[in-house]
Amino acid sequence: MTQVVERILAVVGETGMIADRQAMEPFSIDQRRRYFGKPLAVVRPASAQETAAVVRLCAEARIAIVPQGGNTGLVGGATPDASGGQIVLSTARMDRVRALDSVNNTLTAEAGCILANVQRAAQDAGRLFPLSLAAEGSARIGGNLSTNAGGTAVLRYGNARDLVLGVEVVLASGEIWDGLRSLRKDNTGYDLKQLFIGAEGTLGVITAAVLKLFPLPKAALVALAAVENPAQALELLALAQARCADALTGFELFSDACLSLVLRYFPGTVAPFRERHPQYVLVELCDRESAAHAQTALEGLLGEGAEHGIVRDAVVAQSLQQARALWALRENISEAQAREGPNAKHDVSLPISRIAEFVGATDAALEREYPGVRLVTFGHLGDGNLHYNLAPPEGVAHDEFLRKAEAFNHIVHDSVARFGGSISAEHGLGQAKREEILRYKSPVEIDLMRKVKQALDPLGIMNPGKVI
Ligand code: FAD
Ligand code: ZN
Asked: Are residues 169 and 262 in the same domain?
């Protein structure tokens, strides 16, 4: 064992350190099994003070630190490199809810709290913590903030960035910045907490955060509407926003190709309509009055949609079980695609007004490049965020198809740039898009990012090789 590892061990104790090759494996591979690292050790400090002591030792020895939460990230941001010289700093043991203030509507959570546990703690106090995504059973708050996670309730409540009032961060120097303020107004200079949110561990280690809570809605109601194309889905979105305002919490789009995948790879899934349609929209309303009130609003919306010729068919969930089944159609798409085989994924965002045009133009360009390509397009339409994935035509091997991955990426991302969008809406840059982003951000913006990195991490020990 190297000397520095021994000194770290003295700080965190036996339970705070994993150095056995096999035991380190789950921390060394990313969620999608695209990146395989080899850490020097996995270090699991139990507090911000221990984290600070570890960072100081690493700074002294110039050892790189890769922060890791639930390791559910999709861009390889939490995976160490293969040099055997980086440590993984797991936040898993910092998992206490430190405080809940139901008058201020805030909850202070340590970085290692699992998202679902934070949601539950809020609910036990009669409050809502609205961040919600399919990996919530294992993703941790520090990871959620470091990736500025989105999810299914962004339309109403915003991204992780919008849900934070304060943070506690261990800086690359090993100092602790206690920025755990719980203020809704604070104009005292630069908003430093926002630097660390979405930084993917490249500027410091978040050890705790003050999160915003909201009143629990009285009822949540879900419907699925069949529409002809993305343009009509957008018309329905405008109608839903006009009629339902703040009650509209989810507006998710998926194509019939997505439905086919879920039906094939999740046996027992029932098709929502007797006939198939080109596109489907899942609408969720959260109501402050009652389930009956939500039902009236949702039926009114779908009725007007049908009158305008937008909605071809619709179903409103009549029970929690039916609501879950409708959500499962949307949430199981990624997993169904994974079961089918590797595919080309794009997590893009666009001005909502330009989505239909983007889809039309990009679909056509890809069809020219690879006739028969299957377009597996779904996403959080209400946020302008599409998971624009590509699969090979039936019968073509996935590996052969993926030889063109780079060409696909450029077609999709160039098109995103043309329509004023972003090549990473919610998953971040990590290792996966670190090079690609250089094509799309101006040298001025990249240079600004480098200056921030240099100022906060002059030794370059915080998650090197990621983001920038
Ligand atoms: P990790 O994967 O452990 O880390 C992610 C990044 O944050 C890494 O760069 C890591 O170094 C850094 N990091 C982690 N903790 C800290 C810390 N305490 N301080 C500093 N840096 C840190 N994402 C969405 O935005 N929306 C979705 O809808 C969504 N759905 C998903 C569905 C599935 C099935 C899966 C597998 C993933 C999904 N994701 C989604 C991606 C992922 O779950 C989120 O990015 C999540 O927020 C990551 O949390 P984590 O704790 O797993 O972070
Ligand atoms: Zn998503």
From this structure: no
